[in-house]
C-alpha cells in the first residue's frame, strides 16, 4: 500500500535505501565493464562509480560526515538500483504519455526547498539518502513522473506497468550488485515495491 507524502517528505520518501538488504549472487552476468545492461544499452561501472564518488565527496564535506558514511555502507548497490529504477520509470512515463517541463521540475524543487528550510537543508536531506547535490533535479523529475503515472493509472495498475516495463527492458545486473527482480524493482531482497523504492522527492498534487 502506498503511503501518500506531502510536498516535502524527502527523509521518508527516499525508501530506496532499505535497511540491511541482502545481495543475491545468481543470474546472468552482463558484458564486462557493465554494472547493468538493459534495452540494448548499459550502465557502466565507471558511471556508477562516478555517482558514488560524488556522494562520498559531498558527505565528506558535511558536518555529519562520519554518520552519513556509516549509514550508507551499501552505497554502490543502492545507487545502481536507483539508476535502473529511474530508467524504468522514465520509459513507463514515456510509454504512457507523461511529459514534464523544466519549469515543473524547478517549481517542485523550489517548493521542497521552502518546506525543508532552504536549499542547503534540502541538499542535506538528499545526501542522507545517498543522492549527491548534482542528482537532485533528476530525483525530483523521477518522483514527479512516478506520481503523474500514479494519478493517471492508479496504484495497482502503476505497479503492473513498472513490472511490465522492467521485464521488457530485459535488465541484467552484474552479480556483484545482486540479481534484478522485475516485480520488486530492486536488485536486493527488498520488503517494499516500486512506489516506495524509487528514491524520493516531494509528491506534487
Neighbour order of strands in the largest sheet:
2-1-3
Largest sheet: 3 strands, antiparallel
Backbone structural class = mainly alpha
Helix content: 40-55%
How much of the residues is beta strand, in percent? 5-15%
The number of E-state strands comes to 3
What's the shape? globular
Order of helices and strands: HEEHHHHHHHE
Which stretches are poorly predicted, pLDDT < 50 over at least 5 residues?
Answer: 1-27, 197-205
Report the end-to-end length measured between terminal Cα atoms: 18 Å
Return Rg in Å: 16 Å
Total helices: the number is 8
Q: Average the pLDDT over all residues and give the rounded result.
A: 79
Features of this protein?
3 strands, 205 residues, disordered C terminus, three-stranded antiparallel β-sheet
Question: Could you please describe the fold and organization of this structure?
Answer:
The protein has helices at 10-13, 45-60, 65-70, 75-95, 102-116, 119-128, 136-153, 155-168, and strands at 34-38, 41-44, 172-173. It has 205 residues and is mainly alpha-helical. Strand 1 (34-38) and strand 2 (41-44) form a beta hairpin. Helix 2 (45-60) crosses helix 4 and helix 5 crosses helix 7 (136-153). The protein is globular and about 45 Å long. The two termini are 18 Å apart. Residues 1-27 and 197-205 have low confidence and may be disordered.
